[in-house]
Amino acid sequence: LPVLTTPSPRAVLGAVSALVYGTELGEAKTFAITGTNGKTSVVYLLAALLEAAGIVPGLSSTAERRIGETVIESALTSPEASELHGLLARMREEGVGGVVLEVSAQALVRHRVDGVRFDVAAFNNFSQDHLDEFGSMEEYFAAKQRLFTPEHAERGVVVVDGEHGRRIAAEAAIPVTTLATEYGQKADWHLAITRQSLDGVSFVLTGPNSAYFRGRVPVFGRFMAENAALALIMLHEAGITLDRVAAGLPRSGEIPVYIPGRLEEMTAGGAGPRFFVDYGHTAGAFASMLEALNEVVDGKIIMMFGADGNRDTTKRAEMGAVAARGAHTVIICDYHPRDEDPADIRAQLLAGARAVGGRAEILEIGDPRAAIRAAISRAGSGDVILYAGPGHEDHQEVAGNMLPYSARDEVRGALRESGLLP
Q: Where are the domains of the chain?
């Protein structure tokens, strides 16, 4: 038998997988989203909007893979090329008409999405993360820029509120359309917030040739409206009109989306206290969430979080500082310590928080179960608790062991103990 060798198997795995699975000429519309924060939310919003347009969605995200109604557990943000093309082939068999993928910087440099040429690729934001893997912010950014080349995408959609979005728009090797959410920023599309509360955010999106969409996302935060706008523009760029999407939504324009572990409310709404669990684990994510909460919360904001062990240590002090600036009470607990001493991780977060000074009460409670109950004991009517980090996850990684732990289940149990849930 002939034997072929290559010095870089990963570099050819995508092309080989596309041939094996016959996915190089897929019929479904394909979408990719990259950025530091909010990728998973964009994926789920796109899937919900595809359904509204009458198109069966398939998705791959940090939280899960989904083929129509079939859910598959997710191990990586972006699967290896061989798994990805197998997933695409299965989606084709199941009649999926729109495929949405969350694409990490690691996936791009490790060739995990090779062999797929997306109809539309998008970029939403950029902030510090993964510097344990990338030598600098510039190297991390360059990895994300790879998505906006003819090898990977036909066209792009880019949020240009920040410097890095403007760079991608200017330097991309493919046609790009732009979105701005800040007043006065030059762009093809513009987003305006019309109303927001803890129960959601309403917005108006306008674009070229009198394009117009009025909608609502049932999750709080300006950034969530931006995620929805980005998803709508991606569909528009793929030839799926805003009118077609709107026809499949309620008259209010509400997008019926559920995003696992992303600002997921554990309480039942009402006067509060209200408890949210989120996957955000960067200073940038913390800043966006706390800014949004301070715009809509009259009471106290109580934030609890930890940090990954054996990951980018340089972001820890800033995570603590951002939390202390935006919350009234900061509770620092353990997340995934992995092979590090949990006390050392907490100390770095605490140092960042205490360096800020100001209004925040700062507490160290290593056991997240005890931290949850301490947060609830400090919350009254009109207050909000935000537990950032674990999101949808169902384990803690400690010294090589995967210990069962679901933040969502633990929070629900503590809320029942306190009489705040039936």
A: 9-247, 264-417
